[in-house]
Amino acid sequence: MTDELLFDMLTSVAAMVVVTRMNLPASSIHVFAGSLLGVGMVDGIRSSNWKLVLKFVGGFSCGIAYLIFSASVHSPGDVVP
Q1: Torsion angle, CA of 56/58/59/60, rounded to 10 degrees?
Q2: Cα 4 → chain centroid
Q3: Measured distance CA(56)–CA(22) in Å, rounded
Q4: Any alpha helices (H) in 1-81, and if so which ranges?
Q5: pTM beyond 0.70
Q6: Rounded to whole angstroms, what are the CA distances from 32 to 28, 29, 49, 56, 72?
Q7: Tens of pLDDT along 13-68?
């Protein structure tokens, strides 16, 4: 278990370095979750906790929907002069 956690941390750092050098916006928690899923899939696709992955994707989708909604509600076009 300790080796897998170390490998997961190293892949997270490597992914953050690549994303940063490409000037792409990325959250470190998303990179960590993606690398954790990747390391989990090394043992086999059935060894990953897919319920947790679906919760993560659902939460991310809800966050994006909230940002789009709040940007549309608070846009300057809705201000009445």
Answers
A1: 80
A2: 19
A3: 25
A4: 2-21, 28-42, 50-73
A5: no
A6: 6, 5, 15, 12, 30
A7: 888 888 888 887 777 777 777 777 777 777 777 877 778 777 777 777 787 888 88
